[in-house]
């Protein structure tokens, strides 16, 4: 952002969501987690609907499934953050410029397994 004299003004919230991959990762995760939780809860027999342990189990499973399905978006976001701190030239063909291009580039150059590297450690964060 610039003022009338052409000087740059830095606002405190600027850069929080400078990457669309952050929002593209958060929205599906939250949506999937709520959907899966409600779906799992609806499959519980009436006798167990009030069980706290069962509700916690449904919540843990919903978080686990939601994290697994959206984790590749986190990988792209992290790689974009790391590469933003490294010097580059304009002709760099291995530079991630967007979420979907990043997914394609990671699969092509590093293999599809790289999209799930570190997922097991994330389970420790999500499930409890």
TrEMBL record:
GO cellular component: membrane
Annotated PROSITE patterns: SOLCAR (PS50920)
Statement: the UniProt record of this protein carries the keyword Repeat: yes
Key words, A-Z: Membrane, Repeat, Transmembrane, Transport
GO BP field: organophosphate ester transport; transmembrane transport
Solcar repeat boundaries on the chain: 50-128
Superkingdom of the source species: Eukaryota
Sequence similarity: Belongs to the mitochondrial carrier (TC 2.A.29) family.
Protein name: Uncharacterized protein
Organism listed in the record: Zizania palustris (Northern wild rice)
